[in-house]
Amino acid sequence: TYDFNGQVALVTGAASGMGAATARAFAEAGAALVLVDRDETRLEEIGRAITSAGGKAITLAGDVADEDLAKAAVGRAIAEFGRLDMAYNNAGILGPMCPMPEETGEGYDAVNAVNLRGVWTFLKHELIQMRKQGAGAIVNCSSLGGLVGLPGRAAYHATKHGVIGLTKSAALDVAAEGIRVNAICPGCIDTPMGDGIEPEAMKAFLADQPIGRAGRPEEVASVVLWLCSPAASLIVGVALPVDGGFVAH
Ligand code: NAD
């Protein structure tokens, strides 16, 4: 458990899965939250659940690819809570699930807009604020798909490899200013995103997991909190597998 009382965290894709679990974990550790998602209804439910449990959370609905939304979200953190200390840039979609020659330009652009541009927009505006404060910790969500290739998901894997390149370069830009930027690479995690995968393909994927099961969103949230905490003060620019051994096998 961590003590983030007096600190402020921003989470994108906070209405579901790992984003929602991380928002709850940050709130339980005392952080005030700015929560962003394009699913306004579910986002407000998560925000209300956190505030009714005694936490502090404000919500902002929109598309993470929109740079104005990123600027506005950081602005809300400052207006409501006076600072921004931590961020988890997590919103993502699976996109086209087919062999690469069958992918379309529209499908590629759609997954790239969320998974890569949508990390870039938030990372940029979080860093502008954290530079003013001279401190901060940011975790970007990549995937096992950022470390290895798998058939039938080339666009997704391209964006997740991109998140790692973005993370490493940005980390070096701000490391000397007391700001840490890292990425996590979750493996197969039990969230609604898995609903987009064919049941047979999911069964085979699960059978191929070294730990013999999917991860739980809370098991990823705890790693995000650790990376944002002073316990990870030397961790800079890494792409950390959180995958029960998948990329090791
Ligand atoms: P999820 O579908 O449960 O949650 C994703 C959230 O992102 C949703 O609430 C959705 O509304 C939001 N979102 C999607 N596009 C958005 C946009 N343009 N703007 C704002 N919000 C948007 O999925 P999850 O599994 O919790 O995924 C979270 C992250 O983890 C994603 O980046 C995903 O690629 C990554 N990931 C997931 C797995 C897995 O097995 N579930 C594995 C590796 C990486």
Q: Helical segment tally?
A: 7
State which percent range the strand residues make up: 15-25%
Shape: globular
Given helix and strand content, the structural type is alpha/beta
User: What's the arrangement of strands in the largest beta sheet?
Assistant: 3-2-1-4-5-6-7
- Low-pLDDT segments, ≥5 res: none
Number of domains: 1
The topology string of helices and strands comes to EHEHEHEHEHEHHE
Could you name the CATH homologous superfamily? NAD(P)-binding Rossmann-like Domain
Characterize the biggest β-sheet: 7 strands, parallel
Domain Ketoreductase: 7-195
Keywords: NAD, Oxidoreductase
Protein name: SDR family oxidoreductase
Pfam families: adh_short_C2 (PF13561)
